[in-house]
Recover the amino acids of this structure.
């Protein structure tokens, strides 16, 4: 019995370790995404290369968090909220690793687009999309620190705004492609970049749902907002 | 001590449960991908709708496998190979859930493409890509049953073939878009579909790496094959 407070403290330290590593991952993922979009609009190949190599840091972090989480579960046999806390860490780390991948995928396309130069209006559209996705990611990481289920629920609803901007960017890119066949190849790469950024919003939504689950043990109420409406778009010239 | 054989048996049952559920998920994911491509090339909206609603089954399966895995770890405190076995189940279930998502994402685009009709040559290209991705997925699920690290390593190398076909399909789609602006919107959707199928190969590669890790406790040797080479393609008309 005497050792019980000690065990609790060690367990708390392990939870704190997981929380700290996830916050770090969140900051790194944000940075990668911001850098990838900056590299894209400025045709900055060196910055793109940095994002591509930074991805390994997030991959390692996810693996380490997962292993630490599993060892903690095996050692402490936590129940209920404590167990959900650790399971949530595994899921959030996986989502952040995916966000890093999306930044890397955007960075990989910088070289293909660099030659053509991106029209000012498109660049601003991409920057705006990334800005919203990054705000959502930042907010969800703040909610992660507070563990508030109410705040987690309100972030979920934000995803629709990102999707609306993605859809208008998608239409705009198609218009450029139709105007001049020489725009087709670079705009195709930009379409994939826009899709990468839009999907960051989905991961932020996933994380918000996981935080809700960690705090309450339940899935959030209500329908999840629709993602990417462009899949049902016919020809934009109709 | 008397209860020890009983505990071992119960643990074995839990591992068998995880293995069985993952094999089921694998079969469902394969079916979803095959159906989504069939729906796409035949403009079969009803089949597309079925794929979209089937996705919930894989989402639930992943959640249930994850929860069962965590409860098993907490209850049994497995070490070494047993622990890797359970951690591997969580990872493989996550990859299969993503494969289902990719099938769903393809199915969602069926309606956008249905009006235009897909040229025979493109349809065959997509079918061929899907065929290769499904062979790879099927083989990796067979290796999962055998847990052979050697076989897991040989599957990893197969991914390059899929990437080569994806790249040629990507170029072909751009050519169609350049020939006639009316092809741009449907071909854009097909580009995303091709990308969805190509990414199935990446998940099969992930699963092969996880199986290697489960069997040996190490990451596979050698560089992971490059994914998607189209990100460095400049204009295809150059």
């Amino acid at each position: 019995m005497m050792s019980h407070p000690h065990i609790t403290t060690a367990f708390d330290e392990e939870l704190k370790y997981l929380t700290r590593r996830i916050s770090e991952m969140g900051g790194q993922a944000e940075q990668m995404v911001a850098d990838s979009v900056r590299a894209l609009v400025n045709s900055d190949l060196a910055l793109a290369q940095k994002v591509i190599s930074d991805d390994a840091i997030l991959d390692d972090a996810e693996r380490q968090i997962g292993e630490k989480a599993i060892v903690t579960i095996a050692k402490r046999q936590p129940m209920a909220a404590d167990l959900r806390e650790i399971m949530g860490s595994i899921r959030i780390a996986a989502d952040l690793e995916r966000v890093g991948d999306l930044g890397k995928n955007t960075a990989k396309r910088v070289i293909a687009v660099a030659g053509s130069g991106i029209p000012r209006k498109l660049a601003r559209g991409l920057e705006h999309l990334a800005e919203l996705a990054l705000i959502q990611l930042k907010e969800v990481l703040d909610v992660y620190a507070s563990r508030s289920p109410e705040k987690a629920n309100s972030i979920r609803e934000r995803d629709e705004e990102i999707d609306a901007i993605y859809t208008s960017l998608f239409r705009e890119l198609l218009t450029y492609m139709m105007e001049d066949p020489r725009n087709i190849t670079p705009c195709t790469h930009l379409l994939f970049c826009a899709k990468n950024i839009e999907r960051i919003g989905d991961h932020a939504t996933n994380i918000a749902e996981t935080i809700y689950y960690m705090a309450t043990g339940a899935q959030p109420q209500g329908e999840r907002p629709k993602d990417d409406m462009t899949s049902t778009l016919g020809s934009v010239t109709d």
The longest helix of chain B spans residues 4-41. Chain B touches chain A through 43 residues (CB under 8 Å). The mean pLDDT of chain B is 88. The CA atoms of residues 117 and 181 of chain B lie 15 Å apart.
